Every structure is written in structure tokens, then in C-alpha cells.
């Protein structure tokens, strides 16, 4: 088994070195050079430390990421528990709706809410007109609200898989010893699923930390790390690759600290169980079941507020950049009169990237969770680096690395898939490793002792046991790749325009209605396969995990 783990680790490190570390090295090299190209210096970092602006940028980013993580866990964990252990009416539909916030690009959600609740938003103006004062959505509160509503599925999916993988006998034993149901949940179930909670929380924290779209729309004059990096690289202000590279290193450092805290916690505890099937639904009174249903649907409906805003805006008419209350289908007519190629590109690239990411990420997640060593620790850290790196930075690095020389990838679809796979690999690693933490290693040891090779044991025994986590990770990768913007906007060529690029250019101009219509279509075509997947998961709850 050690040989299998070593092969997986080395192969993964080589892959990440070529398509992640090498491109980043070309970009980050500028952070240690005078004016980005001169001699070596630490002056770029010294300038950041001395700058109140950049210190404020780092502080604002960390504050919003921490608050978003706390609130996402506060609503995601109860929702995951209700979906896993309570017979909620319409569970498959609820799972689909809970996944949808990840489909809608965050910058579209933020912009839709600005059109409704901004300083001159439609709702804000209407309420003020009848004497009801209301503040705007700009600033830290608005950013945290949008992050919470759009990122909480990162917590729901792994925690749901964790609750479904808990050995029912452990809960029964605690109940037989006199523990009340709330006490057992707090002291037995939650500690067991803590790897999944930490995995989801870490994903929320990092995604909020490196997100560009939401602060770009809602921050107003407040500085944010991801926005400053984008502006410095894109040259919206004076282009400064040295400062952008230094800020990128600080962003990676913040992620590394969060990852080390998680690994320190997991390393001192054991979470594996002997689960063979999902635990039974809780026998609740009609009143408690109704309460759980109301809470679950309430959380999901609240998270769909940006969707409601987008759908409403897609049906409203614009006079130039001004939104009116005149309804019509003009936005959809304009959208459908154009090419269907962006939507087809989006679905094709996201599907290829999702499958490739899980094929690469599942073995990595298994090795990271099961075989602790310095080499696997290095792989775990490197595997989380993509999530800490802005998609813009990674895309620029890929262009520099593969725009010339023996391997030229720019201008085609493959470089987009590579960017998606590298960017979304942490989803696969975290969802896989979280579920592996709960699998008893004795099952694999027994298989190997019976003469089955480690690779075959992993493929025929471990992977089926990881199925719930792998499906959750696959869904996460697919829907987030479909809504990816930061890397796509830099890498796409004329023949590979995606739906998010269409939305971005529409919002940048005077086509907010067109962007809303494109977002509505993307939601529809993504919701259908999500619903089918969640129905299948719902039917297989009682089968072997």
C-alpha cells in the first residue's frame, strides 16, 4: 500500500509542478524583483507592510472571509443534518435548490442585488418613496450577506455526506447509555463529522478570501486583496506586477495558515467509523418535523434571493443603463437571437473538467487522509494552493508558461480545462479526504491481506465507499467550473467564449438585462441534471456507502 501511495503522490506532485507551481513561479518571480523585472529585492513586501491601504485591504478580506465562514457554517450544518437525518418533504428538490447558489456567478448575484438594493436601486427607491428608509447593500455587511448566501453549499455538501456516513450503532450506543437526542448530536455526531465541517468551512474561507467579483461590485471605496491583485495585473490602475505578486504570496500565506490549523486538529483525533449504510431517519413528532422542514426550506429560499433578483431583472426592460418596471421578454429575445455556442462551451468544458478533476483528486484525497508522511503533507499543501490563488493570476501564469516553447496551449480549449482542473482540485481533495477520514482502514487491510493489489483495492473497495463524497465533489466542481470567470476572462479565445464571459461583457457595457437572461438560462440548464443526480442519491440512501 505504501508503494501505491508513493506513486500517487509523486505523479500528483509532478502534475501540480508543471501546471501550477511553474506558472505561479513565473508570476511570483516579479514580487522579488525591482519593478518586476530588475534585481532581487524585498522592497515590494516592505512597501506593503508600510502601506495602510494594503494592510486595510488584507484586513477587510480576512474579516469578510471569517464572517462568511461562520455564517455559512451556522446555516449549512443544520441544513445538512436535516437533509441527512430527517424526512423532509421534497428532499431531492431541496438538494437541487441548495446547490444552485454555486451556479450563479457571484458577481452577477452582487450586481443583481445592487440594482434592487443599491443607493438608487429599484426596491430602495420605491421604499424611500413611501417613507420607509433603507440602507444600501454596499460595504462589509452586503459582501458578507452575498458570500453567505452563495457559498454555504460548500458546507452543506461535505457535511451531508459526513452525516450519511456515520455508523448508526455509535448513536444507538450513546442513546442506550442515557444520552438525550440533542446531547448525542452535540457530543457524538458533530465530533465525528468534524472533518467534513472543517473541509467545507475551509473552502468557504478560501473562496471568500480570493473572490474578485463580489468586492468589485459591493466594496465601493474599501480595498480588498483579490480586487487589488486583479487591478494591478490587469492595469486598471498603474500596472505593478511586483506589488501584485507580493500580494499573491500573502494570499497564499493566509490559506496556508488556515490549512495548517485544520491539519493540526485532524492529526490529533480519530474520526473513522464502521458504517455500512446510511443511518435511519429520526423518529420526530409532527411538530418537530414541521419545524425542521420550515427551517430547511427557509434557509434555501433565503439563499435564492439573488436568483429571484436575477430572474426578475431578466424580465424587466432597460432604457440604456436605467432599469424600469416595464416587463417584457426583450432580454431573452436578444440573447436567443445570438449564438448558442457560449452555453455549449460552458457545459462541455465544465463536464470535462469535473470528470478529470475527480479522477485526479480522489486518489490524492485518499493518500492525504490515509497515509500521513512529509511527502503527503507536501501534497496536501500544494493541492490546496490553487484555491488560494486568484484565477486571474493562475491564468496569466499559464499564458506566460505555455504561450511559446515546446508546449503551446494558448488559444484552445485545453488550457481552459487545465485551468479549471487546477483551480477546482481542492474541491475533489477536500471532499474525498473528508469521507476517507470516516472509513475504517481495516477494510482495506483485509482486502490487501487476501491478495488484492493496493490499486485494485482502492478502485473496487475504497472508491465505492467514498461514493457519497465523490458525487458531492463532482457536483461542486461541475457547477463552479460552469460559473468560473476570473480564469476564463483571461484565457478564452474567440471560439471558446463561455456564458460567464457573455455576462461579464454585458454588465461591463449597458447589457445588464442580457446578463441576467444569460444567467437565468445557465441556471435552468444546470438545475435539470442536478435534480436528476440528487434524486438518484435520494434513492440510494439505504444502500452501501
Uncertain stretches: none
Biggest sheet: strand arrangement: 1-2
Q: What value does the Rg take, in angstroms?
A: 24 Å
CA-to-CA gap between the ends? 22 Å
Largest sheet: 2 strands, antiparallel
Instruction: Give the overall silhouette.
Output: globular
Going by helix content, strand content and strand pairing, the class is mainly alpha
The portion of residues forming beta strands comes to: under 5%
Helix count equals: 27
Summed over residues and divided by their number, the pLDDT gives a mean of 80
**Helix-strand sequence:** HHHHHHHHHHHHHHHHEEHHHHHHHHHHH
Number of strands: 2
Helix content: over 70%
Tell me briefly what this model is.
This protein is mainly α and 545 residues long. Helix content is 73%, strand content 2%. The chain contains 27 helices and 2 strands.
What does it look like?
The chain crosses the membrane at residues 53-81, 93-117, 137-163, 183-206, 242-261, 294-316, 347-369, 381-400, 458-479, 485-507, 514-533. It is found in: Cell inner membrane; Cell membrane. It is a multi-pass membrane protein. The protein is mostly helical and 545 residues long. The chain is 73% helix and 2% strand. The protein contains 27 helices and two strands. The chain has helices spanning 2-28, 43-50, 52-85, 91-99, 106-117, 122-129, 140-151, 153-164, 168-176, 181-192, 194-210, 213-218, 225-234, 241-267, 286-303, 305-314, 330-336, 341-370, 374-388, 391-402, 414-436, 442-449, 454-465, 467-482, 488-491, 499-508, 512-539; strands at 316-319, 322-327. The protein has a two-stranded antiparallel sheet with strand order 1-2. Helix 18 runs antiparallel to helix 24. The model has no long low-confidence stretch (mean pLDDT 80).
Amino acid at each position: 500500500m505504501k508503494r501505491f501511495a508513493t506513486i500517487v503522490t509523486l505523479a500528483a506532485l509532478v502534475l501540480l509542478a508543471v501546471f501550477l507551481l511553474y506558472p505561479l513561479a513565473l508570476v511570483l518571480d516579479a514580487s522579488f524583483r525591482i519593478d518586476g523585472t530588475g534585481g532581487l529585492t524585498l522592497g515590494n513586501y516592505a512597501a506593503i507592510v508600510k502601506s495602510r491601504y494594503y494592510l486595510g485591504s488584507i484586513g477587510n478580506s480576512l474579516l469578510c472571509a471569517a464572517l462568511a465562514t461562520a455564517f455559512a457554517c451556522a446555516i449549512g450544518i443544520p441544513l445538512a443534518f436535516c437533509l441527512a437525518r430527517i424526512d423532509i418533504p421534497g428532499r431531492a428538490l431541496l438538494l437541487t435548490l441548495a446547490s444552485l447558489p454555486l451556479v450563479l456567478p457571484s458577481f452577477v448575484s452582487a450586481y443583481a442585488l445592487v440594482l434592487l438594493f443599491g443607493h438608487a436601486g429599484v426596491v430602495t427607491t420605491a421604499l424611500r418613496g413611501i417613507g420607509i428608509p433603507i440602507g444600501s447593500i454596499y460595504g462589509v455587511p452586503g459582501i458578507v450577506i452575498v458570500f453567505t448566501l452563495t457559498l454555504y453549499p460548500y458546507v452543506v455538501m461535505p457535511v451531508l455526506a459526513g452525516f450519511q456516513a456515520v455508523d448508526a450503532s455509535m448513536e444507538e450506543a450513546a442513546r442506550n447509555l442515557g444520552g438525550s437526542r440533542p446531547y448525542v448530536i452535540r457530543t457524538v455526531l458533530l465530533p465525528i463529522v468534524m472533518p467534513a465541517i472543517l473541509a467545507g468551512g475551509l473552502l468557504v474561507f478560501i473562496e471568500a478570501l480570493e473572490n474578485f467579483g463580489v468586492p468589485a461590485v459591493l466594496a465601493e471605496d474599501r480595498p480588498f486583496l483579490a480586487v487589488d491583485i486583479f487591478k494591478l495585473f490587469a492595469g486598471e490602475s498603474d500596472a505593478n506586477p511586483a506589488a501584485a505578486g507580493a500580494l499573491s504570496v500573502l494570499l497564499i500565506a493566509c490559506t496556508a495558515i488556515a490549512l495548517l490549523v485544520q491539519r493540526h486538529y485532524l492529526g490529533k483525533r480519530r474520526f473513522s467509523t464502521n458504517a455500512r449504510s446510511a443511518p435511519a431517519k429520526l423518529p420526530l413528532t409532527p411538530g418537530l418535523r414541521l419545524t425542521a422542514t420550515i427551517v430547511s426550506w427557509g434557509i434555501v429560499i433565503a439563499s435564492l434571493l439573488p436568483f429571484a433578483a436575477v430572474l426578475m431583472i431578466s424580465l424587466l426592460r432597460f432604457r440604456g443603463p436605467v432599469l424600469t418596471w416595464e416587463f417584457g421578454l426583450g432580454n431573452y429575445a436578444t440573447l436567443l437571437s445570438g449564438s448558442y455556442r457560449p452555453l455549449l462551451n460552458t457545459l462541455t468544458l465544465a463536464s470535462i473538467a469535473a470528470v478529470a478533476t475527480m479522477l485526479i483528486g480522489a486518489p490524492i484525497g485518499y493518500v492525504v487522509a490515509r497515509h500521513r508522511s512529509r511527502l503527503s503533507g507536501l501534497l496536501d499543501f500544494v493541492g490546496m494552493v490553487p484555491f488560494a490563488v486568484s484565477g486571474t493570476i493562475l491564468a496569466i501564469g499559464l499564458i506566460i508558461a505555455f504561450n511559446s516553447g515546446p508546449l503551446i496551449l494558448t488559444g484552445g480549449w485545453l488550457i481552459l480545462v487545465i485551468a479549471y482542473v487546477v483551480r477546482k482540485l481542492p474541491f475533489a481533495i477536500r471532499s474525498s479526504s473528508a469521507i476517507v477520514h470516516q472509513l475504517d482502514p481495516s477494510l482495506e487491510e483485509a482486502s490487501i491481506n487476501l491478495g488484492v493489489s493496493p490499486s485494485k483495492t482502492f478502485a473496487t473497495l475504497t472508491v465505492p465507499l467514498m461514493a457519497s463524497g465523490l458525487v458531492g465533489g463532482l457536483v461542486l466542481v461541475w457547477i463552479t467550473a460552469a460559473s468560473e470567470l476570473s480564469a476564463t476572462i483571461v484565457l478564452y479565445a474567440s471560439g471558446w467564449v463561455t456564458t460567464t464571459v457573455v455576462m461579464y461583457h454585458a454588465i461591463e457595457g449597458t447589457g445588464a438585462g442580457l446578463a441576467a437572461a444569460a444567467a437565468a438560462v445557465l441556471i435552468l440548464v444546470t438545475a435539470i441534471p442536478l435534480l436528476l443526480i440528487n434524486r438518484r442519491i435520494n434513492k440510494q440512501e439505504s444502500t452501501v456507502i
